[in-house]
Design goal:
It is globular and about 45 Å long. It has one domain: Muramoyl-pentapeptide Carboxypeptidase, domain 2, CATH 3.30.1380. It has 5 helices and 5 strands; from the N terminus they run E-H-H-E-H-H-E-H-E-E. The chain binds zinc ion (ZN). The site of zinc ion has 5 residues, from strand 3. The site of zinc ion (ZN) has 5 residues, from strand 3.
């Protein structure tokens, strides 16, 4: 199995707290199983974000690369799945070419919400202004 590393001790503790939704953990492990078969030489993934406070949510969207999103968020802030322990981010800058997109496709074999099939389980993106925080965001619907 591919190793799991954590960007910070705080994130490791969040993972160990039992607060993270089990379906999200299962989806992560499904992806890791696939990675260990398809990329056996890859040392391990790094989880860069799990839980997010309201202040942290504000900081991300008020510094978003897309100024329309900053404007929208300023007018009417929204909650993140990260504030509800049902979102997780995986670093992509250390992945070999093509791996992040393929892993995103694997995660997206899981339906996020049968009532809203257009919403995806996983997204490979970078919303930071300096474009150095690329990650695969995975999420599960609230039950
Ligand atoms: Zn995320």
């Amino acid at each position: 199995m591919v190793n799991i590393d954590y960007k910070t001790d705080r994130i490791r503790l969040e993972m160990e707290s039992g607060e993270v939704k089990q379906k999200l953990v299962d989806i992560l492990h499904m992806g890791l199983k696939w990675l260990s078969i398809e990329y056996p030489a890859y040392s391990g993934i790094t989880i860069t974000d799990i839980y997010r406070t309201n202040d942290e949510q504000d900081q991300i969207y008020l510094n978003h690369i897309d100024s329309d999103i900053v404007k929208k968020y300023t007018n009417k802030p929204w909650q993140s799945v990260h504030q509800d322990h049902r979102g997780m981010d995986i670093r992509t800058k250390d992945m070999p070419k093509g791996m992040a997109d393929r892993l995103t496709d694997i995660f997206n074999m899981i339906t996020y919400d049968h009532r809203r099939p257009w919403i995806k389980t996983a997204k490979n993106h970078d919303v930071s202004k300096n474009q150095n925080a690329g990650h695969i965001h995975i999420q599960v619907v609230a039950v």
